[in-house]
Amino acid sequence: MTYKNNHLITRDIFDKVILPVYAPAQFIPVKGKGSRVWDQDGEEYIDFAGGIAVNALGHCHPNLVKALHEQSEKLWHVSNVFTNEPALQLAKKLIDHTFADRVFFANSGAEANEAALKLARHYAIEKYSPYKTKIISFTHSFHGRTFFTVSVGGQAKYSDGFGPKPADIVHVPFNDLDAVKAIIDDHTCAVILEPVQGEGGLTCATPEFLTGVRALCDEFNALLIFDEVQCGMGRTGTLFTYEQYGVTPDILTSAKALGGGFPISAMLTTEAVSSVMHPGVHGTTYGGNPLACAVGCAAFDTINSDEVLAGIYAKRALFIAELEKINQQFDLFSQYKGKGLLLGAELNAKYQGKARDFLNTATQFKVMILNAGTSVLRFTPSLVISDQEIKEGMARFASAVKKVISAY
Fold this sequence. Notes:
Elements: H1 11-17, E1 29-33, E2 36-39, E3 44-47, H2 50-53, H3 62-72, H4 85-96, E4 102-106, H5 109-127, E5 134-138, H6 147-152, H7 156-159, E6 169-172, H8 177-183, E7 188-193, H9 207-219, E8 223-227, H10 242-245, E9 251-254, E10 265-269, H11 271-274, H12 290-303, H13 306-309, H14 312-330, E11 333-339, E12 342-347, H15 355-364, E13 367-368, E14 370-371, E15 376-379, H16 387-406
Parallel strand pairs: 3-13, 5-6, 5-7, 7-8, 8-9
Antiparallel strand pairs: 1-2, 2-3, 4-10, 9-10, 11-12, 12-15, 14-15
Helix pairs in contact: 3-12, 4-12, 14-16, 15-16
């Protein structure tokens, strides 16, 4: 595929018109198909980033394109003064395949987590006490960029500098059950965690930790919230990651891959927890948008299939085999992290803090990757990426690694 560079739109315009909170690559993608992307000059890239685990079916998957096109000619938006068929269809799919009885739709992971945290506090206040408001979260966690969610997230670099933070939020080390035991009490309304920490370095919760936290929540009448915004929707090999642990949360949040690239999120919970809510307590104008939900239905049906889910572990194994070839040549990685195609390669002591160097250089060799913190390279490709594309992309990445290492 070739494209003519539109000289009216260039990368330097970004620095003049966009709020300076991002530092995007120097090329501008203009077309994507499957696991390949083309820029303004027709240069082709292999996409191992997947829009940060969003494009779970790659770019322009035909099932999603068809759903969007068909819905675009029917109904775009009605707000939540009215309901719509795609929203009800998607809600039913989520309920039929999870622990949940009720769904709340929003537009981003942050909004889903905001709703989850508000629900947890409201539930505790209504059912127990106006003082049962403590939220326990974990260091290196990430739950979104609203002021509430960024304060609950366990990375102060994202929440500092904006004035007084929401109160009654406590952070303890991840996978440290004793730390949770030391802080949880009758004033705790919720414990929130990612079964696999996404932005925090792709650390997986241990089975003992999740089982123990579930038991503590039950003991102290606190709700357990699983943030599966990044690790859910097939990313780790099952529809949702909690299934692999045999631990069921009270509330679960989903976004990113839920729409396969179209903005949508969902908060899932039980009938008992949802019973404290009534019209007007929470809401959103765009949540449950017919366009988003129609695409979400198509994404859900495609991802939640034996064909897609059964191939994820094999693709992870191939990624690691290719990474290990690079490691044997350059002595770069200390361990592989995450689950399924939420894959991290941690840099060894010599290259700690240098993850961004590898990411930036990779784009020069036409492969798109991510970092998770400063010392973990993150790969979140399409769940249906071909083996050939994995091998080809890894060959390009090997060239990038060689260039970075030669500079040290």
